[in-house]
Amino acid sequence: MNSPPQEVLTRILRKGMTPLLVFDFDGTLSPIVENPEEAQISPEALSLLKRLSSIDRVITGIMSGRSLEDVKKRVPLPLPVWGGNHGAEVEVLGETRILIDTSRLEALKEFGKVLSSLPLDERVLVEDKKFSISVHTRRVSPEEEKEVQALLRERVKAFPGLAWRRGKRVFEVFPSGAPGKGKALFTVKKILEEKRKETYYPFYFGDDVTDKNVYEEMKKRGCGHFTFVEGGREVSPEGDHIVNGIDGLQEVMEKIVAALKGSA
Ligand SMILES: [Mg+2]
What is the per-residue pLDDT across 159-202, written as a single tens digit (0 to 9) for each? Predict the structure, then answer.
């Protein structure tokens, strides 16, 4: 427990492996705002990410619940690794891969129609992300959120090809069998290894339940290091290392940059 990523990273480099550093976006690199449309990467995180991505001995990426297109717009850097829709779509060294059963997208479209017929409060924001639909409940009370989610869970049941998950103030519906961030991260690792004939060791940084899915996958495979970004009481902190909010993560990113320079 509690081994900081910069220390593990130094050991991994000594073993001849390449660290694969992947960051969640909302609540990790960008402060949570009431309207998800307005979320922006913090200037400090952007500059740290830029420094990290310019270092040859590591490979850097983003894995978000947002669509690939959306998150790429919010991080103006030519990163080699991207994941959108919790890993349903990934882009590795310029090549995009869809990791879900696309035959289920028709059902998702149908569910979208059901959603638009529901009498949802106007503060509840529905976002169609092509490979999933997010229902944002950041602007309603926790009680109202529970009601909305109960209603949605009930409606999803009618679609056997679809599944749902809950994140921080968001309810998401997606094709069942979608990889989730954990499996997607290991698929990215495999793609990289095939393309570059190197061995990669994943480091992941995230703040939400959907990120803890990565931690589970790492534990299952006995490979990887997970830094949890604690940001409120909604998600219980768990990981190989825990930092306090976005500022805590930025301190760690500084240390990683320093460790990489120090061991050059
Ligand atoms: Mg997040």
Answer: 999 999 998 889 999 999 999 999 999 999 999 999 999 999 99
- Tokens at 48, concatenated: 């740290």
For residue 197, report the distance from its CA to the centre of ligand 1, in Å: 31
- 74 CA to centre of ligand 1 in angstroms: 14
Query: If you measure from the C-alpha of residue 86 to the centroid of ligand 1, how many angstroms do you get, rounded to a whole number?
Result: 10
Which helix H or strand E contains 85, and what residues bound it? Answer: none
Nearest to 234 by CA among 211, 216, 208: 208
Dist. CA 19–CA 39, nearest whole Å? 28
CB 250 within 8 A of CB 2: no
Rounded distance from Cα 23 to ligand 1 centre (Å): 9
Tokens of 219: 């534990």
- Domain assignment present for 42: yes
CATH no. for residue 10? 3.40.50.1000
Task: Give residue 24 CA to ligand 1 midpoint distance, Å.
Answer: 6
pLDDT digits (tens, 9 = 90+) for 16-35: 999 999 999 999 999 988 88
Name the one residue in this structure whose structure tokens are 């534990």: 219
Helix (H) or strand (E) holding 195: helix 180-196
Prediction pTM value: 0.94
- Say if residue 169 is in the same domain as residue 191: no
